[in-house]
Amino acid sequence: MTSFDEFINRHCKYVRNVVADMMSQPGSGRVVAGFVIDMFCTGMIDVANEFNIPTYVFFTSNAAFLGFQMHMLSLRDDRDRDLAESTDSDATIPVPSFVNPVPTKVFPSMVKSEGLDFVTRIVGKMREAKAIVVNTFLELETHAIESLSCDSSGPFVYPVGPLLNLEDGAGKQLDDEVKRWLDGQPPSSVVFLCFGSMGSFEEVQVKEIAYALERSGHRFLWSLRRPPLAEKGFGNPSDYEDPRVVLPEGFMDRTVGIGKVIGWAPQVALLAHRAIGGFVSHCGWNSVLESLWFGVPIAAWPMYAEQQLNAFAMVVELGLAVEIKMDYKKDMFNPKAEIELVTADEIEGGIRRLMADETIRTRAKEMSEKSRAAVAEGGSSYASVGSLIEDFMRNIS
């Protein structure tokens, strides 16, 4: 984390030079109205301050997690609380951006690692920003957004989501064979399993998933990826030349009529298909927003980063998902780290609940309508973007 921080901050001098050059050319018509930065680039706030330019942070996760980070900083700095000790118990901790007390078991791993200093440092810098632009919408995270608005010590929050790359996703067409198979399935009958660009499992876990799918009897489409080699450390998953090498013997023959195992998946195009009725997901925020956009309910199986908190929000706070293993954690930076095995019984139970719970399915459909309305003219996020633009215009007037 420290090296990552240093890498970002080394770019400050180059940004400073570019901005100085832009501002030294009077009459060019170019005006720097503000900096818009990622949450990991908070060192740029010091550069913006040198030019008396306001900074806006674009926060790609949700408002509840933003509030969690702000609260963790407060607990550590204002109340001198040892956060690492808190995560070693079955305790729950009240967090203003969540309605329910949050179990420490779903705290991100960074809270009890050396990454905590890095995170609290960038969150502390985020408090110096003029505003934080969050990829969420008021109708989804009403409580979290209102709690942040009540925090007078923090920057103003603009919820502007859901911001999704739907055109690019739609442009990545389904494989012809996969599309033909999906087209032949009944509406909302297929369970789609996909764990994000970094999601993969070792063979022993793959077999448990396979047993669960076969026993559940539900139609399925499974994006199965090969983990990066342990000796290479951190890396991206890849596709298997033949997934049979990690699947139970005869699995693909026995499920040939009801399921398909594929490699990389065009997630947006799949979630948009009428046959998809449930999504077993790692609960990355972008995946959550995509599933809600298409009204597909989720079975939560988080893996790393803030995904456990996302799962808690979806399952407990919002009632838009069922749980497979909400406190599951995988160390994406250490493939050799020991991890807990999620059993076939747990996975099968989650899949059955996902496909049978009509209340959650109805809620997901309702939230789909609200997500689309939020970004349409007159919607809450549409209005928030308008207010953000007005804020920028005041900076150059």
TrEMBL record:
<keyword id="KW-0328">Glycosyltransferase</keyword>
<comment type="function">
    <text>May glycosylate diterpenes or flavonols in leaves.</text>
</comment>
<dbReference type="InterPro" id="IPR035595">
    <property type="entry name" value="UDP_glycos_trans_CS"/>
</dbReference>
<dbReference type="InterPro" id="IPR050481">
    <property type="entry name" value="UDP-glycosyltransf_plant"/>
</dbReference>
<keyword id="KW-0808">Transferase</keyword>
<dbReference type="GO" id="GO:0035251">
    <property type="term" value="F:UDP-glucosyltransferase activity"/>
</dbReference>
<dbReference type="Pfam" id="PF00201">
    <property type="entry name" value="UDPGT"/>
</dbReference>
<dbReference type="InterPro" id="IPR002213">
    <property type="entry name" value="UDP_glucos_trans"/>
</dbReference>
<comment type="similarity">
    <text>Belongs to the UDP-glycosyltransferase family.</text>
</comment>
<protein>
    <submittedName>
        <fullName>UDP-glycosyltransferase 16</fullName>
    </submittedName>
</protein>
